[in-house]
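Supplementary material to the annual report.
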Amino acid sequence: MNFQIALLLGQDGITNGAIYALLALSILLVFTVTRILLIPLGEFVTFGALTMAAIQMGKAPALEWLLLALTLIECGLDAYHFRSNLGSKRIQTMVLKVAYAVVMVVLIQMLPLAELPMAFQALLTLALMVPLGPLMYRLFFQPLADAPALVLLIVSIAVHVAMVGVGLLLFGPEGARTEPFSDTAFRLGPVMMKSQTLWVILVSILLIVTLFLTFERTLYGKALRATAVNRTGARLLGISPVFAGKATFGLAAFIGSLSGILIAPITTLYFDSGFIISLKGFVGAIIGGLISYPLAAVGAVAVGLIEAFSMFWASTYKEIIVFTLIIPFLIWRSMTSHHVEDEE
Amino acid sequence: MMNAVMKPKNLMIVGLLAILLAPLVLPVYQVTLLNYIGLYALVVLGLVLLTGVGGMTSFGQAAFVGLGAYSTAYLTTTQQLPAWLEWTAGSPWAGLLVGLILTAAVALFLGAVTLKLSGHYLPLGTIAWGISLYYLFGTMTSMGGHTGVSGLPSLSLFGIELDKGEKIFYLIWAVLVVAIIITRNLLNSREGRAIRALKGGQLMAEAMGVNTFRSKMVIFLISALFAALSGWLYAHTQRFVNPTPFGLSMGIDYLFMALIGGVSSVWGALLGAGVLTMLKQWLQDLLPMILGSDGQYETIVFGLLIVVMMQRWPGGLMSLLVKLLPAKYRQSHDIKLNDQAAELPRRELPNKGDLVLEACDVTRKFGGLVANNQMNLQLHAGEILALIGPNGAGKSTMFNQLSSVDTPTEGEVKFLGQSLKGKSSREVAQMGMSRTFQHVKLLGTMTVLENVALGAHMRGSKGVIPAALHLEREEEQRLLKEAKYQLERVGLGDYLYEEAGSLALGQQRILEIARALCADPCVLLLDEPAAGLRFKEKQALAELLTKLRSEGMAILLVEHDMDFVMGLVDRIVVMEFGEKIAEGLPEEIQTNPAVLEAYLGGAE
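Predicted assembly:
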């Protein structure tokens, strides 16, 4: 290996690592607030990428129908749940939600998708994807908010399995790649840097800083953190756990689909690529002990780098190397932990 | 007639007959399907043990199946084995042995690095393991990579060649039946009670001397070995292996089978494996027709099915079926008591008046908060000492220091002359200290008798293998007899077979005392034993404690009920703001000005 190859691999590694870091952070965020290990996060990534690809090809991505269907189910369940005191405020919210989904369906059918500027395509993708987060929480997890952690994990896996099937139904078995945001490239020493790489890194850093500021400085961020520390306590102070759950799932859907849009020009993604991607985020999160945000981010970038370099040295063992990375951390944590826990 | 058939034993016989006849009357295709169901059920049985009983889960079971299958495939098809494996001579039985050993090694390692951590690490660790092994199988060129290896020999047993589906059928189902029996035996034993305590009772179990880490490891190991055994059978049924059936998605399918069937019963494993296998066949034909394209769309149905089941019927199909059954056929306890069993040996109690438990300058700080400050107290054999004080005085913290649930920041606790520094609550329990909990901790779905027998855990010694084979019945009878004796002693003799969760709160507290006594302690720590008791029950409790004292037991109780305390105890220690403000005889305490001020706010 020479310096040039090392730079190239490093560039790949950092790009993927930045995405894994974003995913690791959303995993931690969702986990600390709701106790759910969000395995389906990877499906947000693939759905985002494949929707963007469909839009660029001028095809209606079919995701809008999923959004409409889930919104209708949600409103139906809510209407049933609150049937005795269905205030005008609730009806108003429901009408707005359905109207939003209908508008999205109409937009997707009417707009000349392929000719739209790329930023608008990305925006459209996010507008379709982000509401799926709160919907997912409402339909699958909210009824189980007080269930044991094991049940939440099982449901999380079940939702992932179902979403992979839905992905196949919506997007078909073919992989897709999108246009890069711009075609320019930069020379960094002896290697060319693709502009997409810079986009990924810049957007990731921007997002991480924004997340940090939101959680440190704003009331809503603090409310979510309070829920993470003590759900009952937060509830007593008027912070709704339902709101906290929906908000974090919305954020996870946003980060996931944005990650998908960012890497779609670099990697070909298939309907079932999401699992491995989110699991690498999980490796980062485990390195952070499922608690520490900075450690998780650093761990995730390390995952990206190690993956890139093992691609060069032992490409067939790439996945094995990445997933066995967690072993030393597990050993270290087992050696230092003594507690006996009862089921929460 | 109906009655006779519905008895569990007769049901079993009907089931066994059906298994014997199945290959003779069913077409080959159905027999093949039943073979698969049997193989899957064996894996799912392990998951029932792990998930339903132990409250843990694994997504890596398919990888263990793969390890079992690939081990035997390698040993039986490789032309030139390396020298150190030549002894196996291509025998499938050596393949089984090697597969089980490898699996045990992997499971022990995975367990060692995840089972001490919180509950999320085992599933995540098994996902990583499942994926890694799948890719490893795919990269092994000597094993055909992703195309796999064919030409495995068929098994032969007692000279009969099991080369057809309808022949190996009998082996598969015989293994499954044995596995079910072993599992049921294990759960109905001393080790089994410790395993059943894992779900929601780990703190309590540790205080009763159970090594919960070991119990977790045992069931993870058993579930892995069942999976490897299934893999070995699979390899010699198919006589061909490739990586696909050992991937993570199959690992998830196994878990889904367990959940659909019902994780709380061994029969749920069989039901789940059957239902999911049939459903998959049916959906794979149906869905592509409806949706107009090929693909594994059944995953959508399965995923949603699991979500709905978890939200509505977390007990799975089995629990729904049991509910449909008329009450008299539902299986109640199957615990047999033998009053002729020998008594368990008792511990030599210290002489009356000997110092048994001592706190020396115990200080416990939580950050800036000093919960206990320089606390001193002594407890002697044959004495009842009460620790009282207003709410927030630090009594519970002190109780935790004394029982070694927590470690003092400064100072130390001595028990029978030994410092408790660095000792776990399990070790302290073994030294002869037993306790009850302020918030009762018992296993609500287990019988009262079994709950109390858990207290005698340390007094038995027979391990997992005798338990699985039910070779420990004599010891088991002695443990159960002791539990019954202690229950009768505290006045709960009429409730032996009730579910512990169905007792009134006061009775549950008494049950905890019986459980603590079952451990044959010399020191008894009781955390608010009289709370929630009626007057008569309090009187009975006071009588019991008086009798224990006369036998030489040292008793420390934290209590709020002053009438109860004053008439019963020998000495009182009063705490306020983490410090001892008074110590003495009940009469002295009643007139102590500092105590009056602490309780009543004093006269200005």
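The CA atoms of residues 51 and 57 of chain B lie 5 Å apart.
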